[in-house]
Amino acid sequence: MLSILGECYRIYPDGTTQKYKKGLEISDLKENALYKLKDRVYIFTGSHVASYDGAFETEDFMRKMEKTHENVRFLSYFPGQGGNHARNIGVQAAQGQWIAFLDDDDEWHPDKLRLQMELAGTDGEIGLICTAFTYVQDDTGRRQYFCPNAPYDASLAILKENCVGSTTSVIAKHALLDVCGLFDEEMPARQDYDMWVRLCQVTKVGVVKQSCVEYHNLAENNQISWDYRRFVAANDRLREKYGALRAQQLSPLEGKSVLSREALSVARKAFKAGRRDIVCVFARESLKIRFSPEGLACLLAAYLPAGLVSRVYMSLCWKK
Description:
Structural class: alpha+beta
């Protein structure tokens, strides 16, 4: 008997999940199963799961899953070279017409792919489909709905901001990824946005407005998406790659808005890292470039008591 105290999820071989809000009693430890706890902690059960020196033989377990499930293909490499490298390996090995992505701290709803493929069937010009998602603040349990505002032709809008969302919410035509190139493995952050900029120049975008993804903000500060230093470097690289395109397509005022949002994105990530000094620096930089209510709220939140910061952050400042 194994008792899991508190919220957990069971992950099934087809990618669907079952949520247990009040914990779970597992009586049959011989049944092959995978459970996810908070903060990237996983529990394997089953008669064929082995361990040595405290480490699970993940590859052996996945090889067995691959043999018993015809829709599973397990790709392994060592050493790890970052999320973009892993995505590129998957894209190159994939044989389907559409590519979907799932980050390890996110979850799909069971009908996500069905809804996206139904939309794809209505318009052959669409090659990129994103969905609404639910942001889950794991330490408080607070949930908030967000829906991308990408227009059908997002070639201009995507240069202003990420109007598509994160990789977990997206499916894209395989052929378009071959045309636009793979994920930039030199990007320290905002890798998804970098890809959407390229894709939106060559295809139309569809949006499923129903929430199909759970995006978890973990209580720990070790999520790559919250490392403000990576965002500073990523924004510099984006300006190098797309500065000329932005100058050609955007007005001077729109260009300033982009720079202001980029500074604000660093301030938002600094919140999670607990660096209010950095929040102040980049919030002020954002406001200096162009005034915005979001920039002002971000700066003021840096001086609020800790208990109020998350509420201000969620209501005014949060974007993935």
